[in-house]
Amino acid sequence: MIRFEHLMKEYSGRRVVDDLTFQVPQGEIFGLIGPNGAGKSTTILMLVGLIEPTGGRCLINGEDIVTEPIRVKHRIGYMPEDVGFYADLTAARNLDFFAQLYGMKPAERKQRIEELLALVGLDGATQQVGAFSKGMRQRLGLAGALLNDPAVLVLDEPTANLDPPGVADFRRILRDAAAEGRTILISSHILPEVDQICTSVGVLARGRLVAMGTPGDLLQKQEGGTVTLCVETRDPMPDLAVPGVLCVSYDAPRREALVVAERDLGDEIAAFLVGRGVRLLRLAERQPSLESVVLPYYREV
Ligand SMILES: Nc1ncnc2c1ncn2[C@@H]1O[C@H](COP(=O)(O)OP(=O)(O)OP(=O)(O)O)[C@@H](O)[C@H]1O
């Protein structure tokens, strides 16, 4: 189990993580999401003991990472966004190096490394890691994070470089890891992925936890509240400055937009665009998604 108690971090007097208190129960896959600069990486770095909190604490199975650093770090598997490996060693030799640091015996190391390379689909990879694709490095990162049989897995943007089969493998491995009783915390910007894999989600904005629950809980909160509309136009769109629009994310050189509005503003948006000579291709309400629920938090930055 992971527990944050009044966790706080300041840089030069500026608070970037502000009084975080929540817990992630054993076996949960928790998605930590939020806009750029919200404090996700800082929170993760405190959780894995790479930086110290200014106040409060992070507990792994009840033990404080600051007061029991060695014991607690042995219970954590951490996969940073940019996984660092020795480019001139093979995947197996890289893992063997880290396994030695964990104090694992040669026979145990050999067996564990073979199992893990098969698990992440790298059992046939005999080349040096310098020749790996980004996706292969990410697979190796996951194997590295699982090396010490951790109780808690902390993964920063784990699927960013993976192709669809790689993502499917990751999901399967993480679900199995959670079913084995590991507690998993993932930081990600890929909201549909978080929606698919995470059993609970926390939204950070300006260092504070502004929403938390299962993806289903967060969606329910939206019912009777905001409406999400997909807008597609033939011409580039101006800013959709229509009263009641809460948040817009534009795409495809401003010919597509996802609009979160207080109510169904389809007629008003159509009139707004037609009045500005913008030809409309499609305007439809979208079923609520995790993305539409949390987008307003991204806008508030
Ligand atoms: N070492 C540091 N010194 C000073 N300020 C820092 C330091 N590390 C992070 N910050 C600031 O703390 C804030 C939170 O940064 P953090 O990297 O934790 O955000 P994040 O949610 O992980 O963002 P992103 O999604 O862009 O990775 C930002 O304003 C950042 O500039």
UniProtKB/TrEMBL annotation:
InterPro entries: AAA+_ATPase, ABC_transporter-like_ATP-bd, ABC_transporter-like_CS, P-loop_NTPase. Residues 2-231 form the ABC transporter domain. Pfam families: ABC_tran. Belongs to the ABC transporter superfamily. Keywords: ATP-binding, Nucleotide-binding, Transport. It comes from the Archaea. It comes from Methanoculleus palmolei. PANTHER family: ABC TRANSPORTER, ATP-BINDING PROTEIN. This is ABC transporter ATP-binding protein. One of its GO terms (molecular function) is ATP binding. The keyword Membrane does not apply. The keyword Cytoplasm does not apply.
